[in-house]
Design a protein that fits this description.
about 375 residues; 2 domains
Length: about 375
């Protein structure tokens, strides 16, 4: 008796007892060994067990796994099911040749969270090495901005204050001492200031503010501010001294004191020169290379936190341009970074020059 894909509920002993009972019911045909063929055929037909069985459970699903190349293997009713693989791909092993190349069976796609190339954050990376290099300028632009803007702000506070002091408050002898000292700061090599930031300023700032990264954008900004303070201070002094003296005399004649004359007459008259000084200082901060290369950590990441490690455009060009093959993708990407940096500094310097020209026209009475 054959039953495709089903297990009978009756045992084999039940069918055996039925056949024995059939033999006892016909002793003449079976036990006496009658030579009548018709009787033998009748005895055989009557002794056949004809029972209808019902499956106790649904038949197991057949697996089609051919191990020879198509990735399926046929399974008959009594075969043992092949266990599923734990991974996303099932491997079929040939029973004839275990060293045969195994063909991968397409299964369900991998989860999206495991496909790191589709994560939006990875697109905004400057990662020129690896199997899939990425040349996003966003982390470099943000790194330069996080260094240049705080540096310009700090340098503006000290530079404008020094310029106002030299132009309106300091005496002749004090001016002859203070102004050369400020201008001498501009002659200090950038590598010396960068080493000071790396060895002293970074540790001091981390102990004071408990920052996560010892080298970060703020350390680089403070170092760059030391370079652009002389630029802003000198140009502020020149702009305020260019204000005509009769404006000061008229303010004093109207009863204004020195502070009121400075804040309400002199500074508004030389505002264009102050704007030009600040813009030129910002351009100097964007173009600084050695200090930011040594003090910012050089981590090309998209962040707006000034206490994170960043990488600027100038540091990227200085660190990578000498070691890349000429004409390659990274080589062209670095030239694009240089073109962007040149465009930014050109626009800033152009606006500063227009501000200076406007101040000259206003004061040319």
């Amino acid at each position: 008796m054959k039953s495709s894909g089903a297990r009978p509920t009756r045992s084999a002993a039940t069918c055996t007892s039925t056949r024995r009972a059939s033999r006892r019911a016909r002793p003449g045909n079976i036990s006496t060994g009658s030579s009548d063929p018709g009787a033998r055929r009748s005895s055989r037909r009557s002794s056949t067990c004809r029972c209808r069985v019902t499956p106790s459970r649904p038949p197991a699903t057949d697996l089609d796994l051919n191990v020879r190349g198509s990735g399926t293997a046929s399974r008959s009713g009594g075969a043992v099911p092949v266990p599923h693989s734990a991974g996303p791909e099932r491997k079929a092993v040939s029973s004839e040749n275990a060293l045969e190349p195994v063909e991968k069976v397409d299964a369900a796609p991998r989860p999206a969270e495991l496909d790191f190339d589709n994560v939006p954050q990875t697109v905004r990376l400057w990662q020129p090495v690896g199997q899939n290099p990425k040349y996003s300028l966003l982390p470099l632009f943000l790194g330069s901005s996080l260094v240049a803007l705080p540096a310009t702000l700090v340098a503006t506070l000290f530079g404008v204050a020094c310029g106002v002091y030299l132009a309106e408050v300091a005496g002749k002898r004090t001016r002859e001492i203070v102004k050369p000292a400020i201008e001498l700061l501009a002659g200090v090599p950038s590598v010396v200031i960068g080493f000071f930031c790396l060895a002293t300023l970074a540790t001091l700032l981390q102990n004071l503010l408990h920052t996560t990264f010892r080298l970060n954008a703020m350390v680089g900004a403070l170092g760059v501010s030391l370079v652009i303070v002389p630029v802003i201070a000198t140009m502020t002094d020149d702009a305020l001294r260019a204000v005509p003296g009769f404006l000061r005399e008229g303010a004093h004649a109207l009863g204004a004191n020195n502070w009121e004359t400075i804040t309400r007459v002199v500074i508004p008259a030389g505002a264009s020169g102050l704007v030009a000084a600040i813009l030129l200082g910002m351009g100097r901060a964007l173009g600084e290379t050695m200090i930011v290369l040594m003090a910012t950590g050089n981590a090309a990441q998209v962040t707006l936190n000034p206490f994170d490690s960043v990488r600027t455009m100038t540091a990227t060009i200085a660190a990578e341009l000498g070691s890349v093959p000429q004409g390659g993708e990274q080589y062209r990407a670095l030239f694009l970074v240089g073109a962007l940096l040149f465009t930014l500094t050109f626009i800033i310097n152009l606006v500063a020059e227009l501000a200076v020209a406007r101040m000259r026209r206003r004061l040319a009475l």
